[in-house]
Amino acid sequence: MDITLAQCFIAVDHHDKALAFYRDVLGLEVRNDVAFEGMRWVTMGSPAQPGVDIVLEPPLADPNASAADREAMAGLLAKGHLRGVVFTTDDVDATFEHIRAAGAEVLQEPLDQPYGVRDCAFRDPAGNMLRFGRPRRKG
């Protein structure tokens, strides 16, 4: 059995701000942009991983959700309580400087973690935590 990742989802509260960050700062390509029942989904991905998509979706992508549920999800997103995404990069320090220079909120400067990676962390425009790392070289 061969299982691979096809898509992951990131909740965003403003697709155009998210696009400016994920496309213009991180360099992801836009693969699809779909509107449906007052909602929008933007599919993006790294040119180096054509088979893996990141879908930017509304905080609660359910047209039948109650107003209270939509408000609760929007509140969790605003507080940064929804799960984030971990990216790999060949140069953590250069990636950090590039993203910081673009004005992203820094959560953690580059750091050698005790579990064997060097990484850094930011918040995207919607408040999601994004980590950028690579395994530390041994020796």
UniProtKB/TrEMBL annotation:
Under the heading InterPro entries, the entry gives:
Glyas_Bleomycin-R_OHBP_Dase (IPR029068), Glyas_Fos-R_dOase_dom (IPR004360), MMCE/EMCE_epimerase (IPR051785), VOC_core (IPR037523)
Question: Where would I find the VOC domain in this sequence?
Answer: 4-135
What keywords tag this UniProt record? Metal-binding
UniProt cross-references to Gene3D superfamilies, sorted A to Z: 2,3-Dihydroxybiphenyl 1,2-Dioxygenase, domain 1
Family annotation (CDD domains): VOC_like
Task: Offer one Pfam family short name for this entry.
Answer: Glyoxalase
- In Swiss-Prot or TrEMBL terms, this protein is called VOC family protein
